[in-house]
Amino acid sequence: MTDNFNKQASLFWALLVALTVTRLGLAACLPLTPDEAYYWVWSRHLQGGYFDHPFMVALWIRIGTWLAGDTSLGVRLLGPLSVLPGSWALYHAARLLLPSRPWPVSGFQAVLLLNATLMLGLGSATMTPDTPLVFFVSVSLFALGKAVSSSGGRTTGWWLLTGVLLGLAFDSKYTAVLIGLALGGAVLTTPRLRKQAGPWLAMPLLIITTTPVLLWNASHHWVSLLKQGGRAGDWHLARASQFLLELLGGQIGLATPLIFGLFALGGWACIKRNRLLAWLSLLPLAVFVTHALGDRVQANWPAVVYPVLALAAIEAGRSVRWPVISGIALTVLVYGQAVFSPLPFPAAKDPIQRQTAGWPDFSQKLVARAQETGASAFIAEEYGLASQLALTQNSLPVLGSDPRWSLFSFPPAEVPLGLKIEELHRIPAALDQDTLCRQSHGHNVRCYRVDVVKMPSGVQLPGRA
After folding, report:
1. Residue 399, beta-bridge partner list
2. Residue 300 domain-assigned?
3. In a domain, 348, yes or no
4. Are residues 135 and 268 in the same domain?
């Protein structure tokens, strides 16, 4: 039996290593998206927070580019690498948080389910705030499992570590607060946990860990927290059915259909026999469903609860074989389309090409146009466009005119002549001399209006060193 277990464990970890190598290859091959370029600009100027998110994604990119340079792989390096320790933590969390399920099988199943989702399969090969978020949530589940299953003085230490890890998850993305609130609900409704000192001592450590984000927000009029927390301020209840269907469809797509079904069965099973996982999975989901009654929930927002759902799914007691196989197969198909584009989507309608194709060549076209017109800087309002220009060329500075750039500690900059670039909503039938396009395999993907502007103002974006 020991030999059989060792063989299964070896195959399991070999699969995870193979997935990691594949994700590293994908991370190196795919050009960066505008959002990733945006986070790369953040990494050139580290601070406690930014207009959209906390600082962790910028810190991870800074470390990755220090190791592998300002390349696609450098920007994304820590994403694929973080999956291995995150999977190890989830594997052991299954033993601690699923006492009714046989381990190590439960650990194998939970890790395979999470890795087979498109959310992790594609998300770990890119770099967004969800990447460190999922890692820290996964590791916090291991620490939490230790906290609730240990005895004596060790319990308090594991609670303190749980608080630190949840704080780091909050430093990655604000949605981590939902896991913290859910854990608080579980503690308050469980007498055994409520009477322990550990959960209460962990709260100050959690707050201390989030101090850089809170201090930055306090010194910038709480702009980031208000932006994210104020999303529910403009509700459209008449569109509730549309938003709910979008939320449902997004999760079926990101989890992949069969794994989504297991997630749903697992949540129901946890209501009946695992109070802790029921709190951790259902309270965040209830918040997202409530939000969808009046406003759109982006498909990636529930990523914070995916590690919990991977554990919860095991409580359903169903086979994970076909959900895992189908999830990995769908992920491989997406990988293939991203790298080789075998399906003949029009370039302008391919969601991957639309974001990633043609940026370096487009930047060089703009450099040539600037030389022709005597412009000494680029100016762009849209943050993704401005960030891509800062990333893909180092010939001219880029002035960002969006107010978000004023949250950096860079003074406004002015130049005699600037080249202003604005994206057009559609590709024109005929191009004039003031229109330049990004291209993929000779086809226009996106087109931009280019104008010379006298004395443009804006904030100079951090670019390549």
Report:
1. 379, 460
2. yes
3. no
4. yes
Domain count, the chain: 2
> Residues 416, 449: one domain?
yes
Distance between CA atoms of residues 70 and 68, nearest Å: 7
Check whether residue 365 and residue 328 sit in a common domain: no
Alpha-carbon distance values, 418 to 127, 360, 363, 369, 461 (Å): 31, 20, 15, 11, 14
Q: Please write down the long-range contacts of 320-323, taking CB distance under 8 Å and 24 or more positions apart.
A: 320/109, 320/112, 320/113, 320/262, 322/258, 323/113, 323/116, 323/256, 323/258, 323/259, 323/261, 323/262
- The C-alpha atoms of residue 172 and residue 128 are separated, in whole angstroms, by 9
User: Beta 398-400 vs 378-380: how paired, if at all?
Assistant: parallel
- Which tens digit of pLDDT belongs to each residue from 309-336? 999 999 999 999 999 999 999 999 998 8
**Confidence grade of residue 233 (pLDDT, cut at 50, 70, 90):** low
105 and 164 both lie in a single domain: yes
pTM score: 0.94
- At 243-269, the pLDDT tens digits run 999 999 999 999 999 999 999 999 999
Residue 118 lies in a domain: yes
Contact 285, 89 (CB under 8 A): no
User: Can you tell me whether residue 126 is helix, strand or coil?
Assistant: coil
Rg of the chain taking only CA atoms, in angstroms: 24
- Tell which residue, 136, 198, 205, has the closest CA to residue 173: 136
H or E element at residue 53: none
Tell me the residue range of the domain where 440 lies. Answer: 354-460
- Quote the CA–CA distance of 305 and 42 in Å, as a whole number: 26
Number of other residues whose CB lies within 10 A of the CB of residue 172: 28
Of 340, 363, 391, which one is at a domain's C-terminal end?
Answer: 340
Question: Do 12 and 90 sit in the same domain of this protein?
Answer: yes
Q: Would the CA dihedral through 81, 85, 91, 97 be positive or negative? A: negative
Are 381 and 326 part of one and the same domain?
A: no
Element counts in the chain: helices (H) and strands (E): 22, 7
